[in-house]
Amino acid sequence: MPALPFSPEPAACSSVCNMRLYSLLYVPLLVIMVGCGKPMVVHAVTESSLDPIADVRVYRHRFGFFNFFPGTKFVETGPDGRAEVSVGSANTNLTMLRAGFEPVIFGVFETPSVAIAPDVGGYDHVVMFKDIKSAPDNEYQVQLRPVRREPIKLTVLDSATNAPISNAEVFGATFLYLPQPGLEADWGFPPLQVAKTDASGKVTIDQISGFRNSITIRLVGYQNAVIAFDGRTITGPRAIDVPFRKLQSKQIDFLVIDAKTKAPVPGAEVRLGESRDGLPPNPNGWTKVVGVDGRTGPMPVADMSPFLISVTSSNYQEWRGAPVWRALTAGQTKKLELQRK
């Protein structure tokens, strides 16, 4: 049977993450699925001793124009470490997960491409559909390695004064496809890490091997800092200085009106700085329900990046926009127009 060992190559964190996300989400969309499926058997074993691994979840994900991310259905490997999965002629991902082990993404494609090559393209293993043989020669050995945790020491400093920033919140998240902790929680990912910087601006959390890692640092009055890297590139402990930019703020009164009648929309909810990343609310953002006059009243508006405002109200379409912060004048009234459903 063909053995498919995992052999990562070191690369720049940002470029690897970007290439991996691009190949996982967009490259398969260029290929149209044709033909019938074939059964294939994945045999999960430990990397060190080739012992079978039971209870490995295998999620099958067939890409399409309306199917970007994996679903919730899966099969599990038995006591012998084997599971049979039917794969299509193209655009099939097998995501293999078991708590305590690094995840494996197994891609099945119709034609070879540099963009979907193992490791470089974001896949741990790639096979061509035409190369999948009939039983009993349709088995592929997949070696899983244990998750490693390596410390990363962060020193958070004011970008203007270089003074240490204490009491900043630090969140360490892991994911594969969706950068939203909680949406893939049933996959057995390591839990969200939460910590705070000490008086010297230092904090230590774990780098998690095998997953995409995202570290977010937040504090009232400062721009969020985000450190993203591919866990497959982790080589050992490391230390990073993190510059933290102090925010500027203006008082703005938002007025929510009907786009057609120009009448106020009472009860509309205005949100600033909403980040749909699964983390707790941004401390520099806020949510305000307008009064009968459609106004929020003067609210602090910081020059956050991204600078996003959203408005919701029953019977109206949600409004989401990114006004130019520099174009706002302190004390002004900013109109937000809603379209009826």
Description:
The protein is mainly beta. It folds into three domains: 3-144, Carboxypeptidase-like, regulatory domain (Immunoglobulin-like); 149-244, Immunoglobulin-like; 249-338, Carboxypeptidase-like, regulatory domain (Immunoglobulin-like), CATH 2.60.40. Helices cover 4% and strands 39% of the residues. The protein has one helix spanning 13-25, and strands spanning 3-4, 38-46, 57-62, 75-76, 82-87, 92-97, 104-109, 125-128, 139-144, 149-158, 169-175, 193-196, 202-208, 212-218, 225-230, 238-244, 249-258, 269-272, 286-289, 295-302, 309-312, 319-321, 333-338. It has a five-stranded mixed β-sheet, with no helix packed on it. Strands 1-9-2-5 form a four-stranded mixed β-sheet, with no helix packed on it. A hairpin with a 6-residue loop joins strand 14 (212-218) and strand 15. The chain is globular and about 75 Å long. Residues 1-35 have low confidence and may be disordered.
